[in-house]
Design a protein that fits this description.
Strand content of chain A: 25-35%
Radius of gyration of chain A: 23 Å
Order of helices and strands of chain B: HHHHHHH
Distance between the termini of chain B: 24 Å
Shape of chain B: globular
Distance between the termini of chain A: 60 Å
Number of helices of chain A: 5
Strand content of chain B: under 5%
Oligomer: heterodimer
Helix content of chain B: 55-70%
Number of strands of chain A: 12
Number of helices of chain B: 7
Helix content of chain A: 25-40%
Radius of gyration of chain B: 16 Å
Strand order of the largest sheet of chain A: 1-2-5-4-3-12
Number of strands of chain B: 0
Largest interface: A-B, 38 and 40 residues
Shape of chain A: globular
Order of helices and strands of chain A: HHHHEEEEEEEEEEEEH
Largest sheet of chain A: 6 strands, antiparallel, barrel
Structural class of chain A: alpha+beta
Chain lengths: 271, 172
């Protein structure tokens, strides 16, 4: 025992290094299953305050661009107003709303790492919960992975663990969107059935199969498609419709039907 | 001695803030990201006890992780640098007199020594950091390429900071 202690003491530098590295790896593996982002949330209150101070300064320089984005969005909303349609006989309508949108401001964001996140100035106080979707006026942005009192952190589509169920708009085929390039402008479309022919500019929208995003939110357009013979599933390069580098205002989506949907899923598994 | 401690604490805070609020927002040529914060460990005094090296590296990595939505990867990379540092200093200067008052930097050690020293440590740091961040085998070459390019960027900043903040030795 004494020799062991002496040995440990002699190499204390090495053993301290190993112990600390083990702590680091433990933290890492805990945060990999992305519920583990909880560790970040417990502490994000403080960094959120600092971040929003720096965002206030930064955003001052992008006012022009964000005004333009808001103008565009207002225009499209005006076009969607009931007054701008010639309404004939509608069969039925939803009495309840399906989704609630909560506006939020980006407090900090990264776009050029392998795994990218952002922080928004909305939290538990504003009714934000984990696994809510986040979109911008231009398209899909990410998913809420953790909430603190006043802030929430969002895993962007630009993440190696992100996988979004999508549809090709022109023929409703189900595909998946992932992000393998390091370029924040482009993503990859996977699991395209080989018999499909895609063209440059075809639109990809969210499928509505998850409880996170409503159906038909724009994700991007086809940039490059190779149909390799002999493969059953092809992939394609897509250009994201959201410009992640100029995000300023986003919307967090609260799916009001989630509890019911989850309940139904549990029931159907039980039977 | 006290003055020295305050100086290093100040440098710690300054480098963390600089990294989190300025350098993390830089994407040179698309996605090159400098990690200048490691300069803190490079510049710790020669007399620093080894355990303190590791503890301060741990704190440094933790602070960076805390602000940039990552947990653990910056800690692991900084710890490796702190672990390699004493051995590397011994290997690089077997005959040099490392007595009291010698500070690590271009002024006291010369350009060649400091350049080799920081290049080796920064390349180790960036490679570990980028590999842990990606954590995928099929992207390994791409990741190593990005790590190397970012390392070159960081090395330039480290050398630049030396010339910005340290005046050359005055002849007496």
């Amino acid at each position: 025992m004494r020799y062991l202690l002496a040995f440990l003491w002699k190499h204390n530098f090495f053993f301290l290094f190993v112990v600390l590295e083990l702590v680091a790896f433990m933290l890492m593996t805990n945060s990999r299953n992305y519920q583990g982002a909880v560790i970040i949330n417990a502490t994000s209150e403080f960094s959120g305050g600092l971040n929003s101070a720096s965002a206030n300064i930064r955003n001052y320089f992008s006012l022009k661009k964000s005004n333009q984005q808001l103008l565009q969005e207002n225009t499209s909303l005006l076009q969607n107003q009931s007054g701008s349609y010639l309404i004939s006989d509608t069969g039925f309508y939803y009495k309840d709303s399906l989704y609630r949108y909560i506006g939020a401001k980006v407090v900090s964001i990264s776009t050029h790492k392998r795994n990218n996140y952002m922080m928004l100035n909305r939290g538990i106080k504003h009714g934000i919960k984990k696994d809510m979707g986040v979109i911008s006026a231009e398209g899909i942005v990410g998913t809420v992975i953790g909430v603190s009192k006043n802030y929430c952190s969002v895993m962007l589509v630009l993440h190696k663990d992100a996988r979004i169920s999508a549809r090709i708009k022109k023929n409703n085929q189900l595909v998946n969107v992932v992000w393998n390039d390091i370029d924040y402008l482009y993503g990859t479309l996977e699991d395209i059935p080989a018999h499909l022919q895609l063209n440059y500019g075809d639109t990809i929208v969210s499928s509505g199969n998850s409880f996170i995003f409503p159906e038909g939110i724009k994700i991007g357009t086809i940039e490059n498609y190779f149909n390799e013979p002999g493969k059953s599933l092809n992939s394609a390069k897509i250009k994201f419709s959201t410009d992640f580098n100029s995000l300023y205002f986003v919307y967090i989506i609260d799916n009001l039907m989630t509890p019911e949907l989850i309940q139904m899923k549990i029931n159907s598994i039980d039977e | 001695m006290n003055k020295l401690i305050y100086q290093h604490i100040f440098r710690f805070v300054l480098l963390v803030l600089l990294q989190v609020y300025v350098l993390n927002n830089i994407a040179f040529m698309g996605h090159l990201n400098p990690y200048l914060y490691i300069l803190f460990i490079l510049l710790l005094p020669l007399e620093t006890p080894k355990w303190l090296l590791l503890i301060s590296a741990f704190m440094l990595g933790l602070s960076i992780d805390y602000f940039s939505h990552t947990i653990g990867i910056n800690i692991a990379a900084s710890l490796l640098v702190a672990y390699l540092r004493p051995g590397l200093i011994r290997a690089l200067s077997p005959k040099m007199d490392l007595g009291q008052g010698v500070k690590i930097g271009i002024r006291d050690m010369g350009f060649g020594w400091f350049f080799t020293y920081s290049t080796i440590l920064i390349i180790f740091h960036h490679t570990t950091l980028f590999l842990l961040e990606t954590f995928r085998f099929n992207e390994i070459w791409d990741t190593l390429g990005r790590a190397l390019m970012s390392a070159i960027f960081t090395i330039c900043l480290v050398i630049l900071s030396q010339y910005l903040f340290y005046s050359p030795k005055k002849k007496q």
